[in-house]
Amino acid sequence: MQVIATYSTKGGSGKTSTAVNLAWEASKSGPVLLWDLDAQGASTYLTGVKPKLKGGVSKLVTGGKSISDVVRSADFSRPEGQHRIDVLPADDSYRELELLLDAAKGSKRRVEKVLKDASGTYETVILDCPPGASLVAENAVRAADVIVSPLPPSPLSLRTLGQVRELVADSAKPAPILAFLSLVDRRKLSHRRAAEELPAEHPEILDVVIPASVVVEHMGDERAPVAAFAARHPVAQAYASLWTAITEQLR
Ligand SMILES: Nc1ncnc2c1ncn2[C@@H]1O[C@H](COP(=O)(O)OP(=O)(O)OP(=O)(O)O)[C@@H](O)[C@H]1O
Ligand SMILES: [Mg+2]
User: Fold this and answer.
1) 216 CB less than 6 Å from ligand 1?
2) Which residue owns the Cα nearest ligand 1 atom 9?
């Protein structure tokens, strides 16, 4: 089982869009669990799943329920042969998660512990993290084999990458970071420059770019990954390339 966290300190950088599209790509080779760790519930929404976690997140994180008791099936169709995508939905109980973890024994290892159960069931786990540096993020980073971090091309993107590095370096088990430029608008000179220069200058930044496109916003109408409703769109192909780069890292 490989565990991937989509994480950045920056809000609105494309973590959730990435998590949902990578779940689609990963399901081509094996069953996937997508865990929505953000009280906003955006990946729960985008996969068409009911925002209700039976027993609340406390039962899951501090004992009483296991993943198989509370997962729901992603509600979009997949081609024959593609494996299932299960979602651990976020609901209102996630607002308490930070406090809950803080009070728990082994407060940085609860997510890792919950996932132990799942290793025979899923080939890939994707953890969709909330923005910012939090105990939730520390838990996800601790559980992850790789941290996937979208960076919108702005003068602040390297500062954000530095913050991600710091949080990961503080982990007892620092996983490699794979960053990539997201929301890239090739009409803007600064974006073209960033897409050319940053991957060349920073070893963690992949040479894969996710373009800015309304097709990503349409995920909210379709409640599905881009490839499920626009398979030939360049954005679907870009997420597929991102997945290939991640699997190369995990090999
Ligand atoms: N490549 C893209 N092109 C156009 N819009 C995008 C792209 N990626 C993300 N968006 C839009 O930007 C917004 C934020 O994206 P997303 O929810 O994936 O970010 P996030 O990092 O998970 O945000 P948060 O920090 O709130 O969890 C959404 O409305 C999404 O539709
Ligand atoms: Mg998000």
Assistant:
1) yes
2) 14
Closest CA to 242 of 195, 204, 208: 208
Residue ranges per structural domain of the chain: 2-250
What is the number of other CB atoms lying within 10 angstroms of the CB of residue 163? 17
> Helix H segments across the chain?
15-26, 42-46, 56-61, 67-70, 97-103, 110-116, 135-143, 157-169, 189-201, 214-217, 219-222, 226-229, 234-250
Q: Strand pairing of 85-88 and 72-73?
A: antiparallel
**Residues 53/89, Cβ–Cβ less than 8 Å:** yes
Phi/psi at 79 (5° precision):
-65, 155
For the chain, the straight-line distance linking the first and the last C-alpha, in angstroms and rounded, comes to 12
Q: Are 144 and 4 in contact (CB under 8 A)?
A: yes
pLDDT tens-place string over residues 143-185: 999 999 999 998 899 999 999 999 999 999 999 999 999 999 9
Confidence band of 251 (pLDDT split at 50, 70, 90): confident
| Cα 226–chain centre separation | 15
Distance, in Å, from the CA atom of 22 to the CA atom of 11, rounded to the nearest integer, reads 19
Whole-number Å distance, alpha carbon 25 to ligand 1 midpoint, is 18
Query: Could you tell me which CATH number the domain at 2-250 has?
Result: 3.40.50.300
List, as ranges, residues with CB under 5 A of the ion ligand 2. Answer: 15-16, 42
